[in-house]
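Researcher: For the record, we're logging two predictions in this thread. I'll number them. Prediction 1 follows.
Model: Prediction 1, sequence and structure:
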Amino acid sequence: MYSINKTGITKRLETWQLIIPLVDNSGNKFPQTQIDEILENIGVTFPGYTMVNCMGFWKDQTQTYKDENLQVIIDTLPNASADTSSFFSNLKDELCKTLGQEKIYVTKTGDKVELISFKEFFSELGLELETTKNSDEENLKLAGQLVANHDFILKRLAYETVVLQRDLTSKKIIWERKICGIRLRTEFEDNFSLDVILCGADQLNQLGNAIFQNKEIVIVGDYEYQKYFLEKVAYKPIVEAKLGNIENDIAFTNQQGNPITTKKFIELFTMTVFSNYMVLREENFQSSEIKINVGQDGSMQIGENKINGNYLFHCPAIIKSKEVQKLILVCLNQAISQYENNQLDTIALLQTKARTKYVKNRAMVRNMINNR
């Protein structure tokens, strides 16, 4: 996937192309809202794509026809080929039904190679590094270590902040961390007041203590530790919601207030509730000590333990449909079963933590348990 040379990194890519018709078989334009919904679905799934207006021509024995289309071009890494293929296969079927088309064109072109700089490579892995301060030899050595451990680095396995301090002389924040034994160092400008509390995004004990103090908190490394998963890696739900007879209408909004489909809401809401289940499990609650309900006003998750205490999480939402409530529970049971049997997709799991308040909630629960 990545190869190293002295001037930078080469990256192998696969290019997928999707043709979206803009007019129906009678020559009438599809509503722009319908096209926007299709593009939003693609945009949520993939970090980026290119869109081109194009014309298609075809003919039968008597005349030539002209179509207006959108061509969507997406570059993906080869290791995501199976997921990408599955996404477009499902999208083809969905668009054939919703747009009334006999065929939707999806193609995959041959592999291509992109040359990227060391800075671009480190950025793609979500690492906050200042490459200009390193020599070419240092960047080359570090890139070699990262490429050799690419899969572990991407999934942030064995991630640990080892130094986080303020250099009052140079007015810098010094941050050192290790990923799979590879030590990284970054310096930030320190423009904060002296009573500000610094916490590494992976430092749950320190963060839990800081949350209950009446002081400003600066979380260092939140993007690198987990949030980059939302920008750099294609979206994966923790489980896919299979609607069956439920209509996939735009009937809900996300946390930013933007309209989303029923399917997307179920998947995102499941992620939020499941995140709180993980918090309780990873802070020494047994599965049998956690209860979850889903109703028309959202979901509550309750952890009850004689030693650790009782904890309640509430995920508010307006869910009027009983069928949607039931499907959320089905998705939650599936996610919990896969979690307990170590079968969850690692990327989907990390995106769930990044998209929700997992780190903050876990830090708070740990603090309350430690102070009982």
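Researcher: Logged. Prediction 2.
Model: Prediction 2, sequence and structure:
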Amino acid sequence: MPKKLGVNTKALEAKARKDSAKKIKEELIQKQKEDEYWRDDDKLVNRKLERQQQREAKKQEVQQRKAQNRAAYEEEQKNVVKTVKNKEQSNPKMTRSHIQNLIEKQKKKEEPENNIQREPTHLEMPLEENINHLIVDGEEARNVDEAISILSLNEPEIDKHPERRMRAAWLAYEEKHLPRLKQENPSFRLSQLREMLRKEFNKSAENPINQQGLIKNKH
């Protein structure tokens, strides 16, 4: 009978250790791959979150800027309305006789008592700076000078100083035509509307300088 071979326990133990080490190494490699996968996935998620946050921040900035512009425009409109109302409350309506009496009283204050009183011409009439809005027989005047012009329609005479009436004429023109420009250009700021209105006024027949030119041409 052949002799039985004995089991080599050392070889078996060495093989077992080798297999165990190989398994541990494979597990480590697999774990590294999984960790790398999840790490890459986290980077993608973070980039998406950052882009989303940037979009939200820009959106909020645009909305905030629109709200600020809208609030500034509304405040500007309130100031315009308030100014117009204050003018209307402070501007009295005056009759022809009231204006005439006012002119006479002012003239008497300026003339010496021993002077012979005479009827002043419209060029000699003093300006009343505190009268901003006068209604004379249905016609509108911004100061005594304009009121005198209305009273002296039958005496056409060239105004030697039209520039003195420029401010009053401009205020009247602005109050009359500004609402129209606002309606035609609702998105414009008040400063832009006034610039447009100033250009119109420079060419308008309501401009005292232009009125002076028309009178000279007629003569």
